[in-house]
């Protein structure tokens, strides 16, 4: 684990491969933790006529999280960004997650969660998604590996800080505020 | 429904063996390998035969590496349908498992990292004389069939023999998954029975699906993958460490329990946080009946980084039903009595874990639970017992008001070798012994007759 000073903003330029030194994970090279934590950016082309299905799924996730705020907790996310764009080569979907775990390590957990929340229905509308995804974990992993686009620059205003640490700090702040209130 | 007449007994039946021998074999030519397999086939017990009567004196199991299947004549298109991690074998994937430094394959013994390793024969025996008798018998068969023994390992239970334990003195065999349809009920606190597809190929798994099996199906059905590892236990180092960490025997025992997550009797720290409780340790109805998220979220009783909490995070882990494995094995090397100084003999555990997916089950356990320094955000820790250590990792023992942090944990164990095997069903063993091409001819003849 990188011991870093959270109070000192940091930027890191990343080689084209997406890593500095080749470290093999279970499914391929491990992508490093950067000042902006771990990241996962998957970009794939949307199948013709499926834009609306993908777009509507945003509202489905909103409802799922409202009903059970812990539903995405296993992904150890900070932020999730979904973008649809077309720059002349057809409509593409971008799934970008910023999180606190090495993706290679928890890939099956993520896929199980994608299945459980129906997130896979979004992926099913993307070109290249394996037809036998239900039974062929290797093919699903290959899809994510093939469509992952590593960053070449990442920046953190408060680098290397986990969501757990941020929440701990905010809880402490709230608790301390309550103590001060009691002392008025 | 599990095909108990076809599945080898190894993962489904716990035999009352006090001795064992593993022989690691190489087949110089396909006919010799088949001759060896033909001669031993009848001695391999099915789950039904062995499960029905434990009066036997010895139990035999046979498994193959990917190179072994190749040497026995399985064709390339079939070989390519086996999972990539099995094709590669354990040694090339050692870094994925965290087996670096002194645990790396360059230091392994017994030729286990060699591509010449083709098969293992596992003999469990009721006692040492029976083991020795079988050993002689097998030596004869090896000579007659012309295969080569790369290395072997003798195993014996260590005293006291009343309960299974390893050289550090911790009770073993406390958590075994109950396979759905195999008869045994899970012990309280162990969760629901696990679908057979998590351990045996060709059955529905926890996703409710049957993953596409390696081909041909006659070869893969009712088979399992085995990860073998031989792990030396440095009993002297362990005892010296405890002596440094605690002034009294009670303090030392508490440190030993904090590393493991259970007292040496097996009593879990979550249920017995302050002192040893041998009656609890021995009681299978109680010794797994606990969780972590509700009963010990901060690890004040059982440290988050302790061995048992890493190997089975229970309700603090995700997807737990898909990470379970069946363990088999035993201790090798002489017992080191409590009052004896380290004698320099190699002693340890030589064990197998059985599963349907090496990468999802075994490799995950090693890569993430045992050797990820940031497991559960611990930052700089590895499994204190089985993790790879070089003195640079810590162990945090949460306690009020301030946690205790042991810095620079020594290596209590060293992995001396390992390999991936496929444990086929009985029909598959026959298929391999007859030669896949002979079987193909039989199939072709049969279909010619029916057409």
Description:
The complex is a heterodimer of chains A (184) and B (451). Chain A is of the alpha+beta class. Chain A has one domain (10-182): Alpha-Beta Plaits (2-Layer Sandwich), CATH 3.30.70.1090. In chain A, 34% of the residues lie in helices and 18% in strands. Chain A is built from 5 helices and 5 strands; from the N terminus they run E-E-H-E-E-H-H-H-E-H. In chain A, the strands form 2 sheets. A 3-stranded antiparallel β-sheet of chain A has the order 2-4-3, covered by helices on one side. The longest helix of chain A has 20 residues, at 163-182. The model of chain A has no long low-confidence stretch (mean pLDDT 91). With 451 residues, chain B is of the alpha+beta class. Chain B has a domain at 231-417. Helix content of chain B is 29%, strand content 16%. Chain B has 15 helices and 10 strands. In chain B, helix 1 (30-41) packs antiparallel against helix 14 (426-434), helix 9 (235-245) crosses helix 10 and helix 14 (426-434) crosses helix 15. The relative contact order of chain B is 0.18. Chain A binds chain B through residues 1, 23-27, 74, 100, 102, 105-106, 108-109, 112-113, 115, 132, 134-138, 162, 164, and chain B through 83-85, 93, 95-96, 207, 209-212, 318-319, 322, 357, 359-360, 363-364, 367-368, 372-374, 377, 379-380.
């Amino acid at each position: 684990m990188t011991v870093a000073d959270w109070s000192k903003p940091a930027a890191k330029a990343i080689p084209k491969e997406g890593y500095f030194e080749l470290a093999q994970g279970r499914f391929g090279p491990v992508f490093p933790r950067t000042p902006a934590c771990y990241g996962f950016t998957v970009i794939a082309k949307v199948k013709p006529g499926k834009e609306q299905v993908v777009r509507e799924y945003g509202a489905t996730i909103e409802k799922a999280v409202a009903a059970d705020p812990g539903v995405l907790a296993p992904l150890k996310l900070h932020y999730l960004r979904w973008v649809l764009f077309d720059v002349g080569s057809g409509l593409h979907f971008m799934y970008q997650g910023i999180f606190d775990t090495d993706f290679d390590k928890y890939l099956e957990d993520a896929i199980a969660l994608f299945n459980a929340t129906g997130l896979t229905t979004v992926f099913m509308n993307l070109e290249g998604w394996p037809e036998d995804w239900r039974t062929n974990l290797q093919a699903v992993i290959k899809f994510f590996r093939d469509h992952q686009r590593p960053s070449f620059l990442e920046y953190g205003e408060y680098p290397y800080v986990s969501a757990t640490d941020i929440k701990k700090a905010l809880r402490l702040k709230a608790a301390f505020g309550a103590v001060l209130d009691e002392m008025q | 429904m599990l095909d108990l007449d076809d599945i080898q007994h190894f993962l489904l039946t716990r035999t009352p063996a006090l001795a064992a021998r593993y022989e690691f074999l190489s087949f110089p030519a396909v006919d010799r390998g088949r001759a060896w397999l033909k001669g031993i086939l009848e001695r391999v017990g099915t789950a039904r035969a062995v499960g029905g009567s434990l009066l036997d004196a010895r139990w035999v199991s046979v498994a193959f590496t990917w190179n072994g299947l190749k040497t026995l004549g399985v064709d390339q298109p079939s070989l390519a349908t086996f999972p990539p991690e099995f094709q590669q074998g354990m040694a090339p994937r050692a870094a994925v498992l965290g087996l670096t430094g002194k645990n790396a394959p360059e230091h392994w013994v017994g030729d286990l990292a060699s591509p010449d390793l083709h098969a293992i024969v596992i003999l469990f025996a009721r006692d040492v004389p029976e083991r020795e008798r079988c050993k002689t018998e097998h030596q004869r068969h090896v000579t007659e069939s012309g295969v080569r023994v790369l290395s072997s390992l003798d195993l014996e239970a260590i005293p006291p023999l009343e309960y299974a334990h390893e050289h550090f003195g911790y009770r073993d065999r406390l958590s075994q998954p109950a396979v759905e349809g195999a008869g045994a009920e899970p012990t309280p606190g162990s969760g629901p029975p696990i679908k057979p597809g998590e351990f045996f190929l060709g059955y529905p798994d926890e996703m409710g699906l049957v993953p596409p099996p390696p081909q041909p199906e006659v070869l893969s059905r009712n088979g399992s993958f085995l990860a073998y590892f031989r792990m030396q236990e440095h009993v002297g180092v362990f005892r010296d460490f405890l002596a440094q960490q605690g002034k009294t025997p009670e303090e030392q025992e508490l440190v030993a329990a904090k590393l493991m997550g259970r007292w040496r009797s097996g009593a879990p720290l979550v249920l017995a946080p302050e002192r040893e409780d041998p009656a609890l340790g021995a009681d299978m109805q109680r010794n797994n009946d606990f969780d972590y998220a509700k009963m010990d979220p901060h690890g004040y009783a059982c440290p988050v980084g302790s061995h048992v909490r890493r190997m089975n995070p229970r309700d603090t882990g995700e997807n737990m039903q898909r990470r379970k494995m069946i363990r088999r094995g035993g201790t090798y090397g002489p017992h080191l009595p409590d009052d004896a100084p380290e004698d320099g003999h190699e002693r340890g555990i030589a064990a197998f874990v059985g599963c349907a997916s090496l990468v999802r089950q075994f490799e995950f356990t090693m890569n993430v639970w045992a050797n990820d320094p940031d497991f559960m955000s611990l930052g700089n820790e590895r499994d204190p017992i089985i993790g790879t250590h070089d003195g640079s990792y810590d162990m945090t023992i949460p306690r009020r008001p301030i946690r205790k942090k042991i810095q620079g944990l020594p290596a209590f164990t060293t992995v001396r070798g390992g390999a991936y095997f496929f444990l086929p069903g009985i029909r598959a063993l026959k298929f391999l012994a007859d030669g896949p091409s002979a079987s193909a001819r039989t199939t072709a003849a049969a279909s010619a007759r029916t057409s």
